[in-house]
Amino acid sequence: MSRPTYAERVARAGLSRVGEPDDSALRAVVATVGVVDAWEMVRASDDALPARLRARTGGRAAGADPGADLERLHALGGRLVCPGDDEWPASLDDLDAIGAAPLAMWVRGAGRLDALDRSVAVVGSRAFTAYGAHMADAIAGGLADRGWATVSGGAVGVDGAAHRAALVSGVSTVAVLACGVDVIYPPSHRDLLTSVAAAGLLVSEWPLGCSPMRHRFLIRNRLLAALSRGTVVVEAAVRSGALSTARWAQRLGRHTMAVPGPVTSAMSGGCNQLLRETDAVLVTDAAEVLELVGDLGADLAPRPQGAVAMRDALGDEARRVVEATPVRRYVTPDRIAQTAALPAVRVTSLLNQLCAQGLVEVSDEGFRLAAALRRAR
Known about the structure:
This protein is about 45% helix and about 10% strand. It is of the alpha/beta class. The chain has 3 domains: about 5-105, no CATH class; about 110-295, Rossmann fold, CATH 3.40.50; about 310-375, Orthogonal Bundle (Arc Repressor Mutant, subunit A), CATH 1.10.10.10.
């Protein structure tokens, strides 16, 4: 695709001002006549447009000035990234195949939108628990420590924890907003979103000044899924909007993951349901996330292991002798040999070795386990 002209850029800015990203009628007009003619038709309220589309866009079009919008965006240090631009990420083109590609992306920040090849969406509920906060911090921080960017929605709860963890590690993080990139929402995240813009990106489909609305959060979620290699739902109730991001990830063929939670916790109900009813993969840390989304064979997660016990390094016969040796009372080597089903000579030799290792104690009455193994037993 060739680099967009200024007229095409203005048209995309104008169309994003007057229409919502999920307006199928507007998409159909753009697909038929192109963005420049579509903008002219919408701006003129052309009779050739469907009546319902004219009704939806007419009021907004009357006061739209996309050229001024672009100037304001530039003054804020932002830019409008369009299909055909060097910064346009190829991952967004996957949305085009299902009729859901954005017209343009309003971008503000120090990062680049096309530098998200190594990124993971970390999402979850706003009303998260201490468990959710811990897991969001651990996963996003672990990803950042390994050089992977975090994509999230800038909201309170899991989103905010994920952004903060990435910022602490000094790795780029991207907040995909359901409002203009100049609108601070939620207001309590002013400092956080300012920091995200300084180290990464604020991204939106909506022009400057647009307010967040409930339906816009759900529309926005497809971008979270598309921009990243996979989506992790950290903590979410059954009706959480974060689950829509997981559904978009599955629809796009992206890796979908969920952190399991207590079955008694309503805030983990959505994650547990996702694991039970879909092909989402259970993950418990950043290493397991990267094993799924990372480079084949290069990002394998270590197998979880329990604590190493003193007897783990023993051979089979030595372990049998330890198991046959009493905890409190002393017994003879013959008694231990009988219990272990081993020759008495062999047991005596092994008992002497175990004494030297501090695992068995000896007295005139015989042998018993040393204090360390008695506590373990």
